[in-house]
Design goal:
By secondary structure, this protein is an alpha+beta fold. It has one domain. The protein is built from two helices and two strands. Strands 1-2 form a two-stranded antiparallel sheet. It is elongated, with a radius of gyration of 24 Å.
Amino acid sequence: MSSATKGIVHGRIIELDEAPGFPDGAEVFVLVQPREASSAERLPPGEGLRRSAGAWADDPAGVDEYLEWNRQNRKPAKSP
């Protein structure tokens, strides 16, 4: 008897979406593979990056201003 189901990894524990159907304490062999996203779940190119931009996703000029400010503030101070 074998069973296949998906789950989520939490450190060394895998939480299954459904019961595997084996008695408690049964010894099992586990083959772990990452789940491939279906084409419906895949984001269009660049969408992941846009989502990770947070509040700046709709403000590219604000990102440019911040990056320039950051560059200027990282320069070492010149001694007089």
